[in-house]
Amino acid sequence: MRKRFVTSLVMVFLAAGLAFSQTPKAGIKIVGMTPYTLTKVYGSAGNAMYATTGLSTAGEKTIVYLQAIDSTGGTIQSVTWSVGDPSGGHATIDSAAAPFTTITVDTTGQYTINLTVNTAGGTSQASTVITSANYVGVGSIGVSASGSVNLDSTTVFPNPFPQCVQCHQGTGDMTVWSNTPHASFFETSLNGHNPAGIYFSSCIKCHTTGYNPGAQNGNFAVVQNQVGWTFPSTLVDTNFAHLYNTSKKLAQLGTIGCESCHGPGDQHMGDITKISVSMSASVCMQCHDAPPHHVYGRQWVNSPHDSAYAALQKAESIVNSGSYGCAKCHNGTGFKDFVKIG
Prior knowledge:
Elements: H1 2-19, E1 26-31, H2 35-42, E2 57-59, E3 63-70, E4 78-84, E5 100-104, E6 109-119, E7 122-133, E8 142-143, E9 149-150, H3 165-168, H4 173-178, H5 181-190, H6 220-227, H7 239-246, H8 248-251, H9 258-262, H10 281-288, H11 296-301, H12 310-315, H13 327-330, H14 332-341
Parallel strand pairs: 2-7
Antiparallel strand pairs: 1-3, 3-5, 4-6, 6-7, 8-9
């Protein structure tokens, strides 16, 4: 009897060992780094760094943050990273043996990121593609003869290819965007009508497209320096019109535009694999997670909506389906569908 009990106990322990040593399933997460997270990870140096979206489409000459994961929940013992560069690229993984690492994409094109994960249960591999591109601007911002701004213009500005309006005006996308506060917030604030009553040059990095003066990728800050535009000393109604007349190219980036949420677009050219669409909160958090002034991100992270429902979202298929019963409140795509079709 005792022998049979001991044998059974050994079998239980072996079964438990097998359960806790299951074969890993490697994955690569492109991490969106918010202003808050940058300071947490990099300390005071994080204040001088630029937030990222977590999208697979990134600006040329910018940092992409990568996290190795095992979706089975196993403890990662070691990792190996490698990268396949596009023609003309010479980027390398910054810490090829660290689960959390970075790569600075150094040319336009597609980078293939490869990962090998080792756990007690074995080895698994994964790969993902990062599209490195330059910013082109929305192409739909014009100024009338009276100086008023038209965010949905098709005649005032010639809209050079490959700016977004060339393809998306006919779909109605540009009209929908132009009616959102994101489209006009920079222009409104620059002209002295910021809802808070104050506006500083330090604010514009979140209210323009791709702002990063150190990355030569066509973003607002780079074009701003090229054309010599400076933040006005007095906020008056004619400021944005002056910016437009200084550089029409800069004006197309003087907005929270398409590329702010979808990534830079000069590689897109209608190829949906070279632009990003994501419901991830990190896209919003690149600007809205910057306390003490912008606290929506922290409020969300500290609420049950971010954490407590994670298990439910994973376990309950109905939550991730098109069901209006659950998905409209627990799933970004479900909410979008609910708003779109009622």
